[in-house]
Amino acid sequence: MARALDLRETADALDRYRRRAVELMGIAAVAVVLAVGAGTLPWAWASDGVGLLGGLAVAALSFGIGAWSVGKRMEHALGAGTWSAHAAVPVARAWSGATVVLAAPGSGEVWPLKVMAVRQRYELVRPGPDGVLWWCGDPNLGGVIAPPGGGELIWAKPVRGRAARRRIVARAEREGLLSRPVPRSPQTAPTPVTAVEHRRRRWGVWRWVVLVAAVTLGLGIYGAERSMDDPRIDLTILSRQAGDACTVSWKDPFDGTARTGPYQCTPDLDPVLEGWDTGFVVSYGPWKGDLYNADWEGTPAGDVNDALFVLGAPGLLVGLVGGGVSLWRRRAVAPVPYTDPAPGGAPRVSLDKARTEPSATYARLAAHAGRRAIPQTRTHRPEADVRAVPWWRVRGLRRGSGLNEVLMAATGCAGAGLGVWLDVGIPAYVMAVLMAGTLLRSGFRLLTTGRPAALLLARAATAPVPVVRRYALLHDPRGSVPVLVVFPAHGGPDDRPEGLIALAPPGTPNRPSVGLPSEPTGSVELRGWLDRADDGLPIVVPWIEGRPLWPVEPYAEAGGSGFEEHLEWLAPPEEDQPEEDQEAGAPAP
Q1: Cα 303 to Cα 351: distance, rounded to the nearest angstrom
Q2: DSSP structure class, residue 5
Q3: What is the spatial distance between Cα 378 and Cα 362, in angstroms, rounded to a whole number?
Q4: Residue 528 — φ and ψ, nearest 5°?
Q5: What is the DSSP string of 204-244?
Q6: Which residue of 297, 372, 376, 497 is 20 to 30 Å from 512, comparing CA positions?
């Protein structure tokens, strides 16, 4: 078996994870630079900004270093082990974060694992109705879990404490973990990876060159501009040595205190000005208060500004040219097969698509849907009838269009504006800027894509003439997205699918399946067919049990690109083995 890291999706996911760690550390560096700049501002609230930016830098740096460390552990585990598929059950724990329990195929062992990720990332790998996760690592030390396909990676470690492990395992056994069929495992098959794709896995060096050079150039320009406002002051010469080295006194222009220090006096002064001279005081940066003359003698600020400009401008040019050439090469080079130098010529991990598969018929998919059916034990809160109210009053359309995010951002802006009005300090200004940016982003998405899509779905859902078909409700194991497989209304068990409709989970984030049809198979009314998406696929809304289920994609018709591959993912042929074979291969309870 090839290494888990040889799977293209896994390698790309690991690159994304490490890239996020580097971006967090980059945010920390930018926050430090902004904090230094804020410290030079003359306003009283700038000191509050320094503290806020310093806290942001510490937090971003801590998270970045932690993510980088986890990424290195992932790389070691994925580079040394292979992917294996396991039946999985999520177990909620009130005070200890997310936990999953994996069943070891054929051995009867179970592995309670604590997920080391925030909730948003855990949702990417949360076991769906099929209850399958991929695993790579040592269950006694820790490893990587991923949804089938290996496209998202989460680090997990064993649950500590014998009592806690027993409780978690007991809950997983009550949910039937050990009685589930053994899922299909990744197979060894060569997966061609192009040289272009291999280069894309490398770190985006040029983007960081551009970023660092732009920050450097910006600091140089900022220092040069601020130096134009340095106050000019009168100096009293207390003593004069050889080489025009003087000791002078002056009144500090910032706090009004009397100061004394060395100064390089102007040579050959007019005798009328004997005992007097003029100079400048730095008004910014860590050199604020330094005394210097017209030749910048007395402070390193001028040399630093020149160095930042000299380094930043060529660096920015080099980064832009290098990035442009790299982009041109990625687009211009024709894909050629690339082979990793794996020992022994080990093949890459992929799904074995060369085998002979049974036909995706109504009988097979309906049986699969019945085995994976989710019992509806909770009542779904009804939403407004799209036929009687505007689209924005329908919960599903409001959620899918992004209107909820706009309302939340508007509420945040109002709260931040109240804080600014009450003059609570710099945090209110920062929150106002963040909320305003969030409102602009979510509002732009609502106006450009969310609202037009909601109007199309509302128009399709209220179309006058429905098309009646049979359906089988399946779940995509890669994301737990419910999918309706549509069949002819009047046919037999050997009918082939006519199309697929990916649905938005109607429930809450904690219980996404609440609100799905009570039966895994049945009759569905398809309304729409009036509009088509940009790719030419029709917009269709299914009605089941008297209410609409809102799709997240257009209606995928049979024969289209990727249709058969999608069916294979929805109902793997290996899971259609006879019951006695499943029982023989399943772990013993």
Answers
A1: 60
A2: G
A3: 28
A4: 135, -125
A5: -HHHHHHHHHHHHHHHHHHHHHHHTTPPEEEEEEEEE-GGG
A6: 497
Burial of 289 (0-12, 13-18, 19+ CB in 10 A): middle
CA 123 from chain centre, in angstroms, equals: 12
**What number of other Cβ atoms are within 10 A of residue 328's Cβ?**
10
- Maximum Cα interatomic distance, the chain, rounded to a whole number of Å: 114
- Cβ-based burial of 408 (10 A; exposed 0-12, middle 13-18, buried ≥19): middle
Which DSSP helix (H) or strand (E) runs through 406? helix 403-421
64-89: b or e for each residue (b if 16 or more CB lie within 10 Å)? beebbebbebbbebbeebbbbbbbbb
Which residues lie below 8 Å from residue 261, measured CB to CB, with a gap of 6+? 247, 248, 291
For the beta carbon of residue 411, count every other beta carbon within 10 angstroms. Answer: 12
CA distance 350 to 2: 9
Tell me the HSE value of 426 on the side-chain side, using a 13 A CA sphere: 13
Contact in structure between 68 and 21 (CB atoms under 8 Å): yes
Q: How many CB atoms lie within 10 A of CB 25?
A: 18
What is the torsional sign of CA 366, 371, 376, 380? Answer: negative
Question: Strand pairing of 132-138 and 187-188?
Answer: unpaired
pLDDT in tens, the chain (589 residues): 478 888 888 888 888 888 888 888 888 888 787 777 666 665 555 666 677 777 778 888 888 888 888 888 888 888 888 888 888 888 776 556 678 888 887 777 888 888 887 766 767 667 766 678 888 988 888 899 888 877 788 888 888 888 888 888 888 888 777 777 777 767 544 344 443 344 444 445 777 788 888 888 888 888 888 888 888 998 888 888 887 888 999 988 888 888 898 988 888 777 766 788 889 998 887 788 888 988 888 888 888 888 888 888 888 888 788 777 776 665 544 333 333 333 333 333 333 443 444 568 888 888 888 877 777 667 778 889 999 999 999 999 999 899 999 999 999 989 988 888 887 766 777 788 788 888 998 999 999 999 999 999 999 999 988 999 999 998 876 656 789 999 998 888 889 999 999 998 888 766 777 888 888 899 999 998 888 887 778 899 999 988 999 998 899 888 887 788 778 777 766 555 444 444 433 333 3
Phi-psi region of 142 (alpha: psi -120 to 50; beta: other; left: phi over 0): left
First vs last C-alpha separation in the chain? 28
